[in-house]
Design a protein that fits this description.
With 120 residues, the protein is α/β, with parallel strands linked by helices. The protein has one domain: Response regulator (Rossmann fold, 3-Layer(aba) Sandwich). The chain is 43% helix and 17% strand. α4 links the parallel β4 and β5.
Length: 120
Amino acid sequence: MRIFILEDSEERRRIFREMLSPPHTLSFFGHVEEAKTALVTDGPFDLIFLDHDLDNRVFVDSEEENTGYQLAKYIAENNVRAKIIIHSMNPYGAERMQQVLPYAQRISFPELYSQLKLSR
């Protein structure tokens, strides 16, 4: 499975690596612009994980350029097809992301970690 992960935290990236690879191919992105490019040039992806707050910041306004919300809007506008999981700990940002991606599953990172750990 090809997995796209928008996540800036090195600790969370390490957890994703430990839990998902191998056998899955993971592609990490910490900036929305590089993520948009990858969706076009490296896609398609089977699964997309989206964080909201980037640049090692918390409770970032969704209207800022480098947020998961901006990528969620891009995904919706460009009809990107994949299973999507919003794993942000920012409840307001995650809610805004789910408004533009209503089919996405929303699960906070601690809960996601628990589920991944159980599935190993």
